[in-house]
Structure formats: C-alpha cells, structure tokens
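Researcher: Structure prediction, please.
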Amino acid sequence: WLKDGSTIKVENASTYFGMISFWMRSKLSKGFIEFELDPPLRNPPKNIYVRIRHPEGKRMRYVEVNGREWEGVDTERELVNLGSLDKHTIVRIYY
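Model: Predicted structure follows.
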C-alpha cells in the first residue's frame, strides 16, 4: 500500500496524547517515502516513533527530519525515534 505515488492520510485522530494528524507519501521513484506529522500537544509523549516499511522490503539507508540528517534511527528494526515534538514535522526515509 506504499507503492510509488500512494498516499495515506489521517486527520485529527483523537488519542490519549491529544489530536494527531499525519500523511505518508510514497515517492519511491525519487528514492524516499515522506511522512508529515502534526503531533499531539495536549499531553505530548516523551518519544514519538515512526516505522515505515518499504513495499519491496528494502532497508532504509538514512533519514532526514525537517531537511537535516537524523541520528535517532534503528535501521535493523526500521524505527525512527523523533523524540518529543511540538510542531509540524517532515520526515524523509531514503532507501
């Protein structure tokens, strides 16, 4: 469901932490999947984790958060730790 050109969108989902919205856009023809997040603000979690798997099982090579290379990545588990967020965030996972 994340083949090139696909989009997944969740808007204003109610959670224990507050409302959350996110979008995933597959741009695999350009080598990445993009994830945008409006994090919950009422009771923000200490860590927000993102796990996005490549539809063909390829491993992530590196991750950018808001245009900068991100260190909080576990490539074996395909997990990105974004920490605590208080603003709109854009994540690009490169394969």
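Model: The mean pLDDT is 96.
Researcher: Thanks, that helps.
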